Amino acid sequence: MKSHKVIxxxxxxxxxxxxxxxxxxxxxxxxxxxxxxxxxxRQLESDLASDYRLLAMDMRGHGLSDKPREGYSDSKLWAxxxxxxxxxxxxxxxxxxxxxxxxxxxLDYIRYYxxxxxxxxxxxGGITNLGDAETGSFLAPEFLGLIPGFFSTDASESVASxxxxxxxxxxTTLTDEDLYLMxxxxxxxxxxxxxxxxxxxxxxxxxxPKIGKPVLITHGTADAIVKSTITARHQSRIAxxxxxxxxxxxxxxxxxxxxxxxxGLKAFCQKSAGLTTSGV
Length: 280
Fold this sequence. Notes:
- By secondary structure, the chain is of the alpha/beta class.
- It has a single domain, classed as Alpha/Beta hydrolase fold, catalytic domain (Rossmann fold), CATH 3.40.50.1820.
- 41% of the residues lie in helices and 17% in strands.
- The chain has helices spanning 41-44, 48-51, 75-88, 102-113, 133-137, 141-144, 147-151, 155-169, 176-187, 191-198, 230-237, 253-256, 258-277; strands at residues 2-7, 13-20, 25-30, 52-57, 95-99, 120-124, 215-220, 242-246.
- Strands 1-2-4-3-5-6-7-8 form an 8-stranded mixed beta sheet, with helices on both faces.
- Strand 7 (215-220), helix 11 (230-237) and strand 8 form a beta-alpha-beta unit.
- The longest helix is centred in the last third of the chain and has 20 residues, at 258-277.
């Protein structure tokens, strides 16, 4: 596993890890709210590494990336972060795989840089808008009830809400080792970052219909955070998008059923590679 330091938007230093086949198609994983690159260990350490160049970034404010006090409301800075990773690490038409909040960051990138430099986009348990009533209707009440704790600077309240978040993410029972590893990187995200991510108001309904590259919408049928019915909304705005509903898994299908998730991602990457080669 290689580690990279990339200078993103506004001079923020981003942490990126890389493994796999250096000659393979790049896949860049972008995690969700209060998470980090370690969420994708079941992809980075899988047989995907035989064929693909696998990368996972810590978003600004998360993991080992810088945690500035400001800048989280600026869509252009998020776009610059993704662009900096693609350009600095010479990623040749990567597939961008964004989980939960990650699709918002991918769409920030598409808004400012277009899609020419990517081969395809995967939305995993994702939202594409934020701050509107319709999107709120797709978020489970159990998740919405945790939000005040995410913003709290009281350690016990913050930890309790984040632990509850992790348990909502999975249908599988987490081992103590996995739970406390995940809780550790959740707690490392400052409360001001978590709050800043939620107070953004984002409407990507103008961007979605313009996407021409292949899109895969992956969602767990037992997602207890973002209702799986949101996939119909996304597909109505990206008519050519493929939808993969993975049965009996939760908000983190890449963890709950990594083999099924990895198979679906591999098939999508193969299709994306063919379309990119043909000039689409």
